[in-house]
Structures are given as C-alpha cells and as structure tokens.
Design a protein that fits this description.
Pfam families: Amidase (PF01425). The protein has 15 helices and 13 strands. The protein is α/β, with parallel strands linked by helices.
C-alpha cells in the first residue's frame, strides 16, 4: 500500500509512531496528483511547493516533540469557496478572476493550527450553484458526473489526491458528490462549523463540513472545525464534543427510523436494495427499526428553492447587474430568476421551514437516527440532463440529486453520508444518517459501527 492510499486515521497513527513522515505522505499524495489530476480535474489550484514546505515543517516539529494531533502533517484539499490567505478563491467563476484572499477563513485557520498540509483548492460548480461540478470527472468513471457542488473535494479524496478535504453543503453539496464517489461526507448541524471567510450561496442554508474516506476520519476533522466564532452570525455558542467515534459495533437500544414516505420514492432499485441491506445490518448490530413518516414532503422542494434562490440573488446583486456576462448561463439564469421572486414567496418559505423544523423535531423524538438513501440515482453520464423513472416520471438531474438531501439543510439537522455498496456498473451507492441537532456523535457512532463490519474500501480507479 502506498502512503496516499491510507485513511486519515491510519496515516496519523503512522506519523505519530514515527513510521511515516509527513514529507513521505505529502510526496506520495503529490505523485498521485501528478498521475490522476490530468484525467479527473479535481483541483483548480495546486500548491505543491507550499505543501512540501509545510510537510517539512510538520516533520521538524514532530521530531522536536511538538506533535499537534491527528491532523499534523496530513494533506488536504479545500473547496474553492474557502479563503486561504494569499490564495485565489475563484468560486469556479470568471467573476472572481482577480480575487485573492487577504486572510484565512476560520476553518482554514483552524486546520492550519492543527498542522494540516494544504495541497490545493478543489473545483466547485460555479458559486456552488449546481449539483454536478462540470469541470470534474467522477473518480470511478470519467464519463460520469462527479456530483456537486463539492465535486472536486470528493474526487480528490476518492482518488487519493488528498487524505481529506472540506466541502460546503447548501442543498446536498457535500453528501451528493461523496455518495457518487464512494467516500464519506458530513453536513454538520447548522452553525456548528463557522463559515467566516467562506463564499456564500444561501446564508440560511450553507454549511461547511469534512469529506473523508472513513467515518472515523470525519469525526477527527470535525474536532478541528467545530466551535463558536462570533464573526459568523449563525455560529452556535455551544460546547463541542469529542466527535471521534469509539470502536465498537454494539447498537443495542438505538432506534433507527426508516422512512415510509419520500426517501424511497422514485429511486433506483439497486440503491433501495443496498440501503435496505445496510439498514438490516444496523438491526443485526442491535438497533431497533422504527417506521417513520417524513413530514411536509409536498413542501420540501418549494421551501428549498424558495429560500435558496432569493438569498443567492441578493448575494450576487451587484455583479449580476454589472457583469452578468461573466457568469455561466445555468447560474446566471437562476440568479436572474431570483430577481423575479416576490417577497411574499420568500416569507412563505421561511414560515414553511419553521413548521418543518417543528415537525422534524417531533419525528426525531421517536428515533435516534434516520437512515435513508443519500441520492436516488448513482452518477449519471456527463451529458445527461434528465432521469426517467419506472412510472414514466421525468426529473431534472439536479432536482433528483438535491431531492433527498435538502431536508437536512432546511431543518438544519446533521446528516452523514457513507458508502454502502455499488450498482451493477460498479458505481458507488450512499446511505445518509440524519439525527437531532448537535447529534453528530450519534451519527458518527452508528456510521462507524456499520463501517467496521464491512471490508476495507479501495480507492477509486478511474484515473
């Protein structure tokens, strides 16, 4: 096994025990970047010399007894919405062609303090306003979409071009690409991870979270990210936990909600079968399955778009009016549509969200977690715009991908996506676990328990 193939936790153990140096790990990852990046296009910017210098500094500090913890010397990618001092934050757009960040975002600063090594900035759908990341190819099949908008981060981790990465999630943009590329993605509770220095899509729906190879790795990264920052008005001033899950597979007494409605409607049969097998596995580990009714399903799509579209348009109002030609057509059309939305529709979406949060809180009193598919279809061909379901219903690809993930953004509850198999074409299938606000520890415990019963996952092979 090459160092770039190690999970974060395994690499950290090797570094801590002085069996692997950060320099060796970083060189291995950069060699993998040289091999795979020309085929996958996960990165918009690669800072190889900066990474090598940071790895040497990490090795020196560790040798001198100044080990900072499990992220020290670990190579990472950051989505190109996340400011890093002196580095461009283009957000995938010509609008930002001349932008350079004057200071680190909160999350970049925390990861730097933890000793992580930046490899580069990863591609995003323009301003995170899409579910495909068209610049980037799927790590398992280059002819298929990577998913978005954090597609670059997911592909970098899935292919070994980063040991972990950060993404952002407004309607599923961490969980969708991680499901499509066979890695783990965590959308934390709204406000748990500060967003200061992160380009916004929709401020009342935006989240920042980790993309990793294992559930345990996600907990390690979340430990470094979580915590109050007064510069983010939505940041929660609540104590943070130790999110790294303990070893063990006993789920006795845990109540797992299995949705009767919405989450298993209009999905690929192979996905349904894989997710239900994974849920049965949780039951075999001691969990009790409880049927639950997903509340207010008829309002989910309207609420998601009713919040996101006007907030995105408000953020882009100045440049949309002065340099509209610099936006890609798909994003420009969505932003212009936001200018036509009446204020009353936005207020109704806010009211719907309030009611939805109340109903989800009631549902989550009955169970500890909810288990459901992350996306209804595996990665589609890059030139495909719609999905036709068995009953003849035709759905836009982006609408399909956001459909099962957006409820967690509307309600703000945490959601963890993890791989649970592959379809007949060899494409990854993801299951998401949803929990109560600030219930990340429970999600990570359940996901880790499931993961420990499964064979070790290989890296993607499309490169």
């Amino acid at each position: 096994m090459q160092p770039y193939e190690l999970s974060l936790t395994a690499a950290a153990d090797e570094i801590r025990e002085r069996r692997l140096s950060p320099v060796e790990l970083t060189d291995s990852v950069l060699q993998r970047v040289a091999q795979a990046e020309p085929h996958l296009h996960a990165y918009v910017t690669i800072v190889a010399e900066h990474a090598r210098r940071a790895a040497r500094e990490a090795a020196h500090d560790i040798a001198a007894g100044r080990y900072r913890g499990p992220l020290h010397g670990i190579p990472m990618g950051l989505k190109d919405l996340i400011d890093v001092a002196g580095t461009a934050t283009s957000a995938g757009s010509r609008v930002r062609a001349d932008h350079h960040a004057p200071a680190d975002s909160t999350v970049a600063a925390r990861l730097r303090e933890a000793g992580a090594v930046l490899v580069g900035k990863t591609h995003t759908h323009e301003f995170a306003y899409g579910l495909t990341t068209p610049q980037t190819h799927n790590a398992w099949d280059r002819t298929r979409v990577a998913g978005g908008s954090s597609g670059g981060s997911a592909v970098a981790v899935a292919s070994g071009m980063a040991t972990f990465a950060l993404g952002t999630d407004t309607g599923g943009s961490i969980r969708v690409p991680t499901a499509l590329n066979g890695v783990v993605g965590l959308k934390p509770t709204y406000g748990l991870v500060p967003r200061h220095g992160v380009t916004s899509l929709s401020w009342s729906l935006d989240h920042v979270g980790p993309i990793t190879r294992t559930v345990e790795d996600a907990g390690v990264v979340l430990n470094a990210l979580a915590g109050h920052d007064p510069r983010d008005p939505a940041s929660l001033a609540t104590p943070v936990a130790d999110y790294r899950p303990i070893a063990g597979t006993d789920l006795t007494g845990l109540r797992v909600g299995v949705p009767r409605t919405y989450y298993f409607d209009h999905i690929d049969p192979e996905i349904e079968a894989a997710v239900r097998r994974a849920i049965d596995r949780l039951q075999a580990l001691g969990a009790r399955l409880v049927d639950v009714e997903t509340p207010m399903t008829r309002y989910i799509q309207a609420t998601q778009w009713g919040l996101m579209v006007p907030e995105a348009t408000a953020y882009h109002q100045g440049t949309l009016r002065t340099v509209p030609e610099l936006y890609q057509d798909d994003v420009r059309i969505l932003l212009e549509a936001g200018e036509l939305m009446p204020a009353g529709d936005y207020l109704r979406a806010q009211r719907s969200r309030t009611l939805m949060r109340q109903e989800w809180a009631r549902m989550l009193q009955e169970v500890d977690v909810i288990a459901a598919p992350t996306v209804p279809a595996t990665a589609v061909e890059a030139d495909r715009s719609t999905i036709t379901w068995a009953d003849g219903t035709v759905e836009d690809v982006s609408d399909a991908y956001v459909r099962l993930s957006s409820p967690a953004n509307i309600t703000g509850v945490p959601s963890l996506s993890l791989p649970v198999g592959h379809d007949a074409a060899g494409l990854p299938i993801g299951m998401q676990l949803l929990g109560r606000p600030l219930g990340e520890s429970v999600l990570l415990r359940v996901g880790h328990a499931y993961e420990q019963t499964q064979p070790a996952r290989d890296l993607a092979h499309a490169a």
